Amino acid sequence: MLLPSAAVAQHSTRDAINPYRVVQRSTLHGISLLNTLDTYLSGYDHKGAGYHIQHETLRRAHTGSYNWIFRTRTDATLGIATQHSNSQLLLMASRRWSGYHPFTIGGNLKILAGAQIRAEGGALYTPAYSNNPVSAKAGVTMDASAMAVYTFLIGEKEYRARYTMDIPLIGALFAPEYGQSYYEIFGLGHTRGIIHISSPFNAPSMTHSFVIDIPTRKSTLRIAYIADIYQSDINSLRTHIYTHSFLVGYSRTIYKVKRNDPIEAYSPL
Question: What is the distance between the alpha carbons of residues 109 and 1, in angstroms, rounded to a whole number?
C-alpha cells in the first residue's frame, strides 16, 4: 500500500515476495527557514536559516488480523538566526517511532491513523548574552499521527503524494524556573521542579509534512516540505521554534532475504 511490493527486476518472483520483508528507506537534505524566540535568553524573535537532514524508514507488519505500517524518522537541524547585531545558533534533533493502521478510501486514496513516540532535544546559543548564553531543550511526547497517501499515474509512471500531521498530546520536558541558571541546576544540584508535564495547553505544537515521490529510471526521487511548530509557555518562560524545511533526496526499497526464501535463489543476471 505505502511500500512497493518488489523492485522492477523482480517481476518474475513478485508472487513469491513476502511484503512484510519489504522496507523503504529515504535520506533527504535541504534548507530550513528559522524563527526562534526564547525569553530565557531574550524577548526578541530571531530569524535565519539552516541545514536540515532527515532519514526515514517505512515497513509493514502483521499482528493477528490487523495490518500495520511502522515508521521511524530522524531529523536534525543546524542553523543560525539573527536579531539586529546579535546572532543565535540553533541545534535541534528528534527521533520518532510511529505505528499506523491503514484504511482504504476509493482506489487511490488511503488514510492511516496511529500514534507516535517522539524524543527531541537541542539548544539555542547566543554568544552576546554572557550570563546565560545557552537554553537547552529536551522532551519526550506521545503524539497523535495521521497520514493521507494518494497514488496517481502520469503516463505509465506511478507517482505518490503523502501528507502527514503529528500533534503532541502529553509528555515531559525540561524547563528551568524563571531566572534559574544552569550553574544552579548542574553545579549546585538544584534540580527540583525542572521537569514538567507538557500538553497542548502549555506546549501547543505540531508538525506538518508533504512528500511527493517521483519515479526515475533507476530510483525514486523524493521532494518534501516540513513545517515544524514547537512552542511552550512554562514557568513564565515562552519559547517558540518554527522551522520551514525544503528537502530533496532519494528513497530506495530493500527486501530482507532470509534463508530458504524463494527469492534467495533468484538472480536478474
Answer: 10
Mean pLDDT, to the nearest integer, of 148-160? 90
Q: Kindly state the cell numbers that stand for 213.
A: 515521490
Instruction: From residue 162, give the alpha-carbon distance in Å to each of 27, 218, 219, 223.
Output: 16, 21, 18, 11
CA within 13 Å, CB half, 99:
8
**Contact, 38 vs 185, CB < 8 A?**
no
User: CATH classification of 8-265, choosing from 3.40.50.720, 2.40.128.100, 3.30.930.10, 3.90.600.10?
Assistant: 2.40.128.100
pLDDT recorded at residue 18: 57
Please say if the pLDDT value at position 210 is more than 80.
Answer: yes
Query: CA-based Rg of the chain, rounded to a whole angstrom?
Result: 22
Strands (E), the chain: 22-38, 46-63, 66-83, 86-105, 109-125, 134-154, 157-174, 195-198, 206-215, 220-234, 237-255
Domain ranges (residues) in the chain: 8-265
Is the predicted pLDDT of residue 4 greater than 80, yes or no? no
Cβ neighbors of 9 (< 8 A, separation 6 or more) are 268
Q: Is 157 exposed, middle or buried (0-12, 13-18, 19+ CB in 10 A)?
A: exposed
pTM given for the model: 0.85
Has residue 99 got a pLDDT over 60?
yes
Top-confidence residue, 11 or 61: 61
What pLDDT is stored for residue 132 in this prediction?
Answer: 78
Q: How confident is the model at residue 11 (pLDDT cuts 50, 70, 90)?
A: very low
The secondary structure element, H or E, covering residue 182 is: helix 182-182
